[in-house]
Design goal:
The chain has 145 residues and is of the alpha+beta class. The chain contains six helices and five strands. It folds into two domains: 74 residues, no CATH class; 61 residues. The protein is globular.
Length: 145
Amino acid sequence: MNKLVLAAQQVQSVLDGAGIAFCFIGEFALRYRVLLLKTADEIGIDATLSALPFEAEIIARSTSFEFAPGVILRTCSAEDLLVMKIFAGRPIDWRDVEMILRRYGRGGLDLTAVEARVMPLLEAKDERSSWNEYLRLLETLPMSR
């Protein structure tokens, strides 16, 4: 079993027990309300905490995913992860955007929802280049999948 997944399961148990709304999101943590955790083994885990309406919506759309038998974690949707990665815009995020797009393809994602969610965020930070990079990556995908 992946040590990160096991650590995340432990964190989820604690947060659930405390009644804290959250979902696991990856490395979006550097800029926004995210719980940055490390286990005794130095395994990092990022979890978003609901503070802004956008974050509350991500949590509301989150679903449970079984990583291994008996190890179920609440995670954000692929579309929400894509939005957060586009908005963060670091080189590692663009690699993740490409992997998400290739994994799900055009037919496996609600691209209209991605645009509706990411555009207000990009406009708020006056960032058009991230949208253009996303469109460039999207163009590399086959039309259907």
